[in-house]
Every structure is written in structure tokens, then in C-alpha cells.
């Protein structure tokens, strides 16, 4: 590392003169300046700064998964950076509590001056959603119709071009599909997995039938639900059935990618799978934290505006509620829990597979 030649001054390095002079409340143009508008501006500026950092981290992760080969050493860095993203998301969720120190009347004292500005116009947040994998075809209907309406032509063209690029979801799907252990020599894990799940489901059905505490109606309902669970397992392992439920929107990942993620999750204690499992867990937590952020934002908007229309023209609280429920990216990783087996029921892997999944030292 070379020694710096010019001295570095704190205020100049952070460009504080420019930065601290960038809060310009609009309410003062029309009368007395609303006291809480400065808070509103600073919180949203802080959001945008953290969005920039999140995108900086995701960009480095995307670069790793754009390659044909992902090394374990790279996964270490990827997991570290995604955990940083999760910490930042936690901070963003806490910032909403600061916003909620503003009363509805405090907000109404300047809110109408902001029309038609809206969070819809946060380009960085739209880049974040698209980069993760929330592209137009996966959005709720209102988003499909209005996603680009309130943006400049330059921003519209930029985001439309970004939609044509592979997202992190698509990169991860391709990476999972390359996982080599689904079939290994003469070993086919899914044959023994199907035997294990059939045995588990048969035992569960017997427990339902033998439960004297259930009424006939309750027993019939549980048997019906058990039948649906068995159908889910059958769809997971049958190529045609899987594709049918995938087209219906039950899965986004391909069958092979889903099976690979499930294999990694079930055998996460194997040395080769430790980092991949941490990586998948990070993606799940990022999706969870983003959903939590949407939920907290929705509750704050209802608290501030009730049922009023949002400044961007959406239905306010109702719109945010629907995006909270629907705008998920890595939901397939949440749903893997449906297909997990108890640890003591996991099929034993052949020795050659165990060796391939572990780290073995040999002087030869």
C-alpha cells in the first residue's frame, strides 16, 4: 500500500459542505417552513445512501455468479457481503421508527407540496428489485401498468435495459443447476429420497387415522390435507408435474435448481455444502428483511394517511399491502421446508458420495 502524498481533511473527504446543504424543504416556499419536513428529507436521503451501498455489495456478488465457475473462496466473500446487506436492511427497518416520531398532522403540514413525487421514483430501489429478480412479469397488476409512468424517459430506458440482464435470481438458478451430486456414478439420491418420503407420509397417515381425539369431520379434513401434501412431494420429483405447477406459479426455480437447493439444505453439515447453505440462507433473509421493510412501511403509511391516495397516485396503504404479500423473490427457498426430512430420517449417503462432499487429506 502506497503512502498518501496529499493530506486528507475530514470535511473535504466526506464533501460535507455539499452534503449538509442538500436538505431543501419545499414548504418554506409557501409560508412557514414545516418543522418535520427536514426529518422527512434526511430519512429518505439516508435510505438512498444505504441503497447505494446495498447495490455496491450486490454488484460484486453478481459478478461472481456471472462466471461459469464459483470457487469456495469466492463464496466466503459473497456470504460476508450479503450478511452486511442484511445488517443494512435491519438499519433501514429501524429508520421507519424514526419516521414514526412524526405525527400524521405534522406530515400533512407539508405532504401536499410533494405531489407528484413518490417513492415510486426511487431509481435505486427499482434497480435493487430488478437486480434481485423482481422483474415486471412478477409484479402485481398496478405495478405492471404504472412501474415506468412517473419516471423520466432516461430512467425508463435505463430500467428497461436492466430488465433484459440476468438477475441474481437467474444467476443463482443457473449455479444450482450445475450442482453435480444429484446423480453421482450409479447413485441417484432422489430414488432413496422418494422411498424415505413415502415411508414418512405413510406413517403420518397412520397417525391421523389412529387419533381418537379427532372427530370424523376433523379426521377427513386432515386426510384431505395429507393427500395434498403427498401430491406436493409427487410434483417435486416428477418432471412433468413439476413443470405444470411451476407454470401455475407455485415455483419459480427450475426442478433441477429446486432439487439442488433441497439437497444442500438437507446435507448442510457436509463440508462442501456449508458455504452454499449459508449463501442460500442469506438470500432468504434478504427477502425476509425486504418483506418486513414493506410491511413496516405499509403500517406507517396507514398510520400517517389512513385510506388516502398516495402522492404517486397509488391506493396508498392498500397498494403497499399487496406488494408486501406478492413482491417476493426467493420464496422458493422458504418453501423448501415443505420437503425437508428430519435429520434422523435422512437417507445415508454412499461412502464415495461422502468423500466427494468432504475434505480428505492423503499423502498420495
From TrEMBL:
<dbReference type="InterPro" id="IPR037217">
    <property type="entry name" value="Trp/Indoleamine_2_3_dOase-like"/>
</dbReference>
<comment type="subunit">
    <text>Homotetramer.</text>
</comment>
<dbReference type="GO" id="GO:0019442">
    <property type="term" value="P:L-tryptophan catabolic process to acetyl-CoA"/>
</dbReference>
<keyword id="KW-0223">Dioxygenase</keyword>
<dbReference type="Pfam" id="PF03301">
    <property type="entry name" value="Trp_dioxygenase"/>
</dbReference>
<feature type="binding site">
    <location>
        <begin position="40"/>
        <end position="44"/>
    </location>
    <ligand>
        <name>substrate</name>
    </ligand>
</feature>
<dbReference type="GO" id="GO:0004833">
    <property type="term" value="F:L-tryptophan 2,3-dioxygenase activity"/>
</dbReference>
<dbReference type="GO" id="GO:0019441">
    <property type="term" value="P:L-tryptophan catabolic process to kynurenine"/>
</dbReference>
<keyword id="KW-0823">Tryptophan catabolism</keyword>
<keyword id="KW-0349">Heme</keyword>
<dbReference type="GO" id="GO:0020037">
    <property type="term" value="F:heme binding"/>
</dbReference>
<comment type="pathway">
    <text>Amino-acid degradation; L-tryptophan degradation via kynurenine pathway; L-kynurenine from L-tryptophan: step 1/2.</text>
</comment>
<keyword id="KW-0560">Oxidoreductase</keyword>
<dbReference type="GO" id="GO:0046872">
    <property type="term" value="F:metal ion binding"/>
</dbReference>
<feature type="binding site">
    <location>
        <position position="111"/>
    </location>
    <ligand>
        <name>substrate</name>
    </ligand>
</feature>
<protein>
    <recommendedName>
        <fullName>Tryptophan 2,3-dioxygenase</fullName>
        <ecNumber>1.13.11.11</ecNumber>
    </recommendedName>
</protein>
<comment type="similarity">
    <text>Belongs to the tryptophan 2,3-dioxygenase family.</text>
</comment>
<keyword id="KW-0408">Iron</keyword>
<keyword id="KW-0479">Metal-binding</keyword>
<feature type="binding site" description="axial binding residue">
    <location>
        <position position="297"/>
    </location>
    <ligand>
        <name>heme</name>
    </ligand>
</feature>
<feature type="binding site">
    <location>
        <position position="311"/>
    </location>
    <ligand>
        <name>substrate</name>
    </ligand>
</feature>
<dbReference type="InterPro" id="IPR004981">
    <property type="entry name" value="Trp_2_3_dOase"/>
</dbReference>
<comment type="function">
    <text>Heme-dependent dioxygenase that catalyzes the oxidative cleavage of the L-tryptophan (L-Trp) pyrrole ring and converts L-tryptophan to N-formyl-L-kynurenine. Catalyzes the oxidative cleavage of the indole moiety.</text>
</comment>
Amino acid at each position: 500500500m502506497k503512502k498518501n502524498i496529499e493530506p486528507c481533511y475530514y470535511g473535504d473527504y466526506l464533501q460535507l459542505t455539499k452534503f449538509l446543504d442538500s436538505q431543501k424543504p419545499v414548504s418554506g416556499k409557501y409560508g412557514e417552513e414545516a418543522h418535520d419536513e427536514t426529518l422527512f428529507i434526511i430519512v429518505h436521503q439516508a435510505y438512498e445512501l444505504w441503497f447505494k451501498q446495498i447495490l455496491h455489495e450486490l454488484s460484486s456478488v453478481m459478478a461472481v455468479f456471472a462466471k461459469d465457475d464459483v470457487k469456495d473462496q469466492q463464496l466466503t466473500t459473497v456470504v460476508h457481503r450479503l450478511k452486511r446487506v442484511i445488517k443494512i436492511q435491519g438499519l433501514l427497518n429501524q429508520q421507519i421508527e424514526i419516521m414514526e416520531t412524526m405525527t400524521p398532522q405534522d406530515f400533512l403540514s407539508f405532504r401536499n407540496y410533494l405531489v407528484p413525487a413518490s417513492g415510486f421514483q426511487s431509481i435505486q430501489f427499482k434497480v435493487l428489485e430488478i437486480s434481485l429478480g423482481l422483474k415486471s412479469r412478477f409484479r402485481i397488476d398496478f405495478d405492471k401498468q404504472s412501474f415506468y409512468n412517473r419516471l423520466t424517459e432516461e430512467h425508463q430506458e435505463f430500467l428497461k435495459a436492466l430488465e433484459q440482464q440476468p438477475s441474481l435470481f437467474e444467476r443463482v438458478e443457473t449455479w444450482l443447476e450445475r450442482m453435480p451430486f444429484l446423480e453421482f456414478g450409479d447413485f441417484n439420491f432422489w430414488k432413496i429420497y422418494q422411498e424415505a418420503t413415502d415411508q414418512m407420509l405413510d406413517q403420518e397417515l397412520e397417525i391421523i387415522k389412529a387419533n381418537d381425539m379427532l372427530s370424523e369431520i376433523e379426521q377427513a379434513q386432515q386426510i384431505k390435507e395429507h393427500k395434498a401434501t403427498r401430491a406436493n412431494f409427487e410434483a417435486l420429483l416428477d418432471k412433468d408435474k413439476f413443470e405444470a405447477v411451476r407454470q401455475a406459479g407455485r415455483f419459480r426455480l427450475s426442478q433441477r435448481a429446486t432439487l439442488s437447493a433441497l439437497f444442500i439444505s438437507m446435507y448442510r453439515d457436509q463440508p462442501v455444502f456449508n458455504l452454499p447453505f449459508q449463501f442460500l440462507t442469506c438470500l432468504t433473509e434478504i427477502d425476509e428483511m425486504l418483506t418486513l421493510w414493506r410491511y413496516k412501511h405499509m403500517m406507517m403509511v396507514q398510520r400517517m394517511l389512513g385510506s388516502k391516495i398516495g402522492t404517486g397516485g397509488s391506493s396508498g396503504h392498500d397498494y403497499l399491502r399487496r406488494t408486501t404479500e406478492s413482491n417476493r423473490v426467493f420464496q422458493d427457498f422458504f418453501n423448501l421446508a415443505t420437503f425437508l426430512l428430519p435429520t434422523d430420517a435422512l437417507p445415508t449417503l454412499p461412502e464415495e458420495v461422502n468423500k466427494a462432499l468432504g475434505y480428505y487429506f492423503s499423502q498420495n
